[in-house]
């Protein structure tokens, strides 16, 4: 990334596309860019979120399938979704998303939701929501992610639906 700073394509005076647009727009593009940079700097100083950061609120715009948190620790929240059918499969499903993903990527909207599909087809679904690590979590190791994350979730799933094999994905 540091090397990209020196790239001729990233410099105003050596980028022919930018120079052409600047001439066509009589510099208006540079004014707009400066105003955007100023707005970004003001947002940085005031600690305000970027534009659109609040456009998708979990529970309102995404992650709309009803569920409840059944486990909360320093690393995860485990959400349980009850089946929405009278006939229920005995074996529960535990979804373990990647650490860098938010759980609601699997529950974006009613029409685009793996979790909703599963509960509407009689499955009891559990999904891990990984917490964003902070400075206090810098000492966490891979073993902590296994113990506090996946194994803790499996313990709760097994206690909630005893005697059943768990489908984990």
Automatic annotation (TrEMBL):
Q: Molecular function (GO) terms listed?
A: acyltransferase activity
Q: Name one Pfam family in it.
A: PhaC_N
UniProt keywords, alphabetically:
Acyltransferase, Transferase
Where the record annotates domain Poly-beta-hydroxybutyrate polymerase N-terminal, the positions are 1-118
Matching entries from SUPFAM superfamilies are given as: alpha/beta-Hydrolases
The highest taxon in the source lineage is Bacteria
Instruction: Please list the GO biological process terms of this entry.
Output: poly-hydroxybutyrate biosynthetic process
Point out the signal peptide segment: none
Q: Mind telling me what this protein is named?
A: Poly-beta-hydroxybutyrate polymerase
């Amino acid at each position: 990334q540091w090397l990209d700073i020196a790239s001729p394509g990233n410099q105003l005076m050596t980028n022919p596309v930018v120079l052409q647009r600047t001439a066509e727009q009589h510099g208006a593009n540079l004014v707009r860019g400066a105003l955007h940079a100023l707005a970004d700097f003001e947002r940085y100083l005031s600690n305000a979120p970027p534009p659109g950061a609040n456009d998708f609120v979990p529970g309102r715009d995404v992650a709309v399938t009803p569920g409840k948190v059944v486990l909360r620790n320093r690393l995860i929240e485990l959400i349980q979704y009850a089946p929405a059918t009278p006939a229920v499969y005995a074996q529960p499903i535990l979804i373990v998303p990647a650490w860098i993903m938010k759980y609601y990527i699997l529950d974006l909207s009613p029409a685009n939701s793996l979790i909703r599909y599963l509960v509407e087809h009689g499955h009891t679904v559990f999904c891990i929501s990984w917490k964003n690590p902070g400075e206090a979590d810098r000492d966490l190791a891979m073993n902590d992610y296994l113990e506090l994350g996946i194994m803790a979730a499996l313990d709760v799933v097994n206690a909630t639906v005893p005697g059943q094999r768990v489908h984990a994905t």
